[in-house]
Amino acid sequence: MPTITVAEHAGACYGVQRALDLVHKVAAEAAGPVHTLGPLIHNPQVVAGLERAGVTVVDDVPEQAGSTLVLRTHGVVPEVEETARERGLAVVDATCPYVKRVHHAAERLQRDGYQVLVVGEAGHPEVEAILGHAPGAVAVANVAALDGVPLSKRVGVVVQTTQAKATLDAVVSELMARVPEVCVVNTICEATSERQQAARELAGRSDVMVVIGGRNSANTTRLAEICSAACPCTHHIEVPAELEAAWFVGAPAVGVTAGASTPTAQIDEVVSRIRELSA
Prior knowledge:
This protein is an alpha/beta fold. It has helices at about 15-30, 45-50, 80-85, 95-110, 125-130, 165-180, 190-205, 220-230, 265-279; strands at about 5, 35, 55-60, 70, 90-95, 115-120, 140, 155-160, 180-185, 210, 235, 255-260. The chain has three domains: about 5-10 and about 190-279, Cobalt-precorrin-4 Transmethylase, domain 1, CATH 3.40.1010; about 15-95, Rossmann fold, CATH 3.40.50.11270; about 100-190, 4-hydroxy-3-methylbut-2-enyl diphosphate reductase, catalytic domain (Cobalt-precorrin-4 Transmethylase, domain 1, 3-Layer(aba) Sandwich), CATH 3.40.1010.20. The protein has a four-stranded parallel sheet with strand order 1-12-10-11, sandwiched between helices. A four-stranded parallel sheet has the order 3-2-4-5, with helices on both faces. Strand 4 (about 70), helix 3 (about 80-85) and strand 5 (about 90-95) form a beta-alpha-beta unit.
């Protein structure tokens, strides 16, 4: 049987656990319907569990006064929260506090006269919320994306909390070569950095890596990319049923990590299943 090692930093981060605790409390206490605006976190299994508990996902602010609307961990644009309150909904803000920091940093840079760039994935809900807090800001996923952005003489930079530091560093380096003044606020979440570093180290000494988390999760996908670079036999899964016994044949060292939206119970289930398949 292989040695199975779980990364030192893996699984649900503070922001995710806080959001889950909030929504479970609301679901137990609210008199009316409870909704989350978009999936609370990028974990289909957890979202399905919340649905069974009566917490439904909605794409738009409901019209029904008396409902409770939980704002997802990724945050929302200010206008969405204003609309919810105007319609008489009870609003519970489950936005990750570290995402809130990005909102405040973007607002401050814009007030100080900087052109705001967000290093992150355009279309991702966290990035869209950040852009909403600094109207006119632009998202750039990488250095190549800068070519399509007219730059001012003073550029302020914030970054999606789950981005890799190497991406931020590359964008900032290029900006410094192009514009006279660059002000950078590194808003990468420490938990993200810790998970990425721990995954990289574990993958480097593992024969097989299993990365657990939603395929719609940016931070989990990035963990899988990092692990794949150090361990070619890396597998990104959402549930234990996806594991295959063949992966572990002739693999004395198996590493396991998980994205920031993956509760500990899901990690434990995967580890147990690996043991069964390797027995």
